[in-house]
Write a structure and sequence with these properties.
Layout: E1 14-16, E2 23-32, H1 35-42, E3 63-64, E4 68-76, E5 88-91, E6 130-132, E7 140-141, E8 151-155, E9 159-162, H2 168-188, E10 196-200, H3 206-215, E11 220-224, H4 228-236, E12 241-243, H5 246-256, E13 262-267, H6 277-282, E14 284-292, H7 307-312, E15 316-319, H8 327-339, E16 351-353, H9 358-366, E17 373-376
Parallel strand pairs: 3-7, 10-11, 10-13, 11-12, 13-14, 14-15, 16-17
Antiparallel strand pairs: 1-6, 2-4, 2-8, 2-17, 4-5, 5-9
Helix pairs in contact: 2-3, 2-8
Bound molecules: nicotinamide-adenine-dinucleotide and zinc ion (ZN) (2 copies).
């Protein structure tokens, strides 16, 4: 768990209550170390303290991290009909209730029950199932999942049933990074055969945008990352060209495309700051699409986009959460592609860590050493 901004992750004993109605207790086997959890540490993803009372939050911290993960259902609460003990599941950082306006129109990534991600308590009834053993204080769970914990009690709507024979490491990766990156390219950017695609930031998310763009038939997949190791990995996963910065990519893209520039640009760096949008949008040519996948600091409201160019070049800028995929349909779909040998998952993990070494894993992420690091629970 994390106790406050810019602190190390702390490993502590917690108590977890049994599941109540429409909840399940999950024993997590693998938790992916996504950059979104790092945003809790830096504060990019922490609402400003002055709005906590408006959100009904007394104290944002401590919070249990982890939203990418896979595990096994070990107990089901009353009324749970879709899962049983022993089922293998993927975490879904957006719940899919199946009934709200968004779920029922094929936009599960916008499910209304995902709105309370920052609020403490369960989706089901708002009360807490997790507390610190040392002082009995209720604990929040990031995205109401908390996959960094060995066990957590979650809503039935927040886990996706997967085939029991699939490796749980692969399932964990698909639950956030792979789906978000692949979907950013294939679903949100709608990469077409013959497109020129630029992916900015080749981490756990961006590498899968590279993979998705190549799978969708892009003519050129141009990966941009300052870290050489990431650029090498991008070439192994479907990139055709790599550059160390957007500035370098802009110059080369002009020559490569005879000034046409890219059809699709996916922005997936560690953090998106407003001043990165000038180059980010210039990478796209006429009629181009720019997809914002990376998370900007919550309070960032200024950006350097040339608005004249957006209108006159008929460009569009789109946001995406979860690559605009439907977790309940698309997590199993992506695992099907993996099973058939079409999607690379085993190649994504650079290092595995015991929970006690979580801070080593995040240090490695900050140093650009991991394409994806995962925690393997004992
Ligand atoms: N939209 C969503 O639903 C969603 C889901 C998951 C993660 N995210 C966000 O996506 C982003 C990427 O996550 P990740 O886990 O892949 O992170 P990561 O740390 O694994 O990778 C980020 C990569 O970006 C590179 N980078 C940093 N600055 C750059 C720049 N100026 N130009 C080019 N590359 C740059 C880094 O070297 C690194 O390789 C984060 O902001 C994360 O919070 C969004
Ligand atoms: Zn994530
Ligand atoms: Zn819904």
């Amino acid at each position: 768990m994390i106790h406050g901004l810019n602190q190390q992750w702390a490993v502590e004993e917690i108590e977890v209550d049994p599941p109540k109605a429409a909840e399940v207790l999950v024993k997590w086997s693998v938790a992916g170390m996504c950059h979104s959890d790092e945003h809790l540490v830096t504060g990019d993803l922490v609402p400003p303290e002055e709005v906590w009372p408006l959100m009904g939050i007394d104290d944002f911290f401590p919070i249990i991290g982890g939203h990418e993960g896979a595990g096994e259902v070990v107990e089901v609460g009353p009324g749970v009909t879709t899962l049983k003990v022993g089922d293998h599941v993927a975490a879904s950082f957006i719940p899919a209730c199946g009934r709200c306006r968004y779920c029922s129109s094929g936009r599960q990534n916008l499910c209304n029950s995902g709105a309370g991600t920052f609020l403490p308590g369960m989706i089901t009834d708002g009360t807490s199932r997790h507390r610190r053993s040392s002082n009995g204080k209720d604990l929040s769970l990031f995205a109401k999942l908390g996959t960094f914990s060995e066990y957590s009690c979650v809503a039935e709507t927040q886990v996706i049933l997967v085939d029991n024979d699939l490796p749980l490491e692969s399932v964990a990766l698909v639950s956030c990074g792979v789906a978000t990156g692949w979907g950013s390219a294939v679903k949100r950017a709608e990469v077409q055969a013959g497109d020129t695609v630029v992916v900015v930031g080749v981490g756990g998310i961006g590498i899968n945008a590279v993979q998705g763009a190549a799978m969708a038939g892009a003519k050129r997949v141009i990966a941009v990352d300052p870290v050489e190791f990431k650029r090498e990995k991008a070439m192994e996963m479907g990139a055709t060209h790599t550059f160390a910065s957007m500035t370098d990519a802009l110059a080369a893209l002009g020559e490569l495309t005879w000034g046409e520039m890219a059809d699709k640009v996916i922005l997936s760096p560690s953090v998106l700051y407003g001043d990165m949008m000038a180059e980010g949008t210039q990478l796209a040519g006429k009629g181009g699409t720019i997809v914002i996948t990376a998370i900007a600091p919550m309070t960032q409201t200024e950006s350097s986009v040339n608005l004249f160019e957006i209108a006159m070049w008929n460009k569009e800028i789109k946001g995406t959460i979860f690559g605009s995929l439907n977790p309940r349909a698309d997590i199993p779909m992506l695992l099907g592609l993996y099973r058939e040998g079409q999607l690379k998952l085993d190649e994504l993990i650079t290092n595995r860590y015991a929970l006690d070494d979580i801070n080593l894993g995040y240090d490695a992420m900050r140093n650009g050493e991991n394409l994806r690091g995962v925690i393997v629970h004992s």
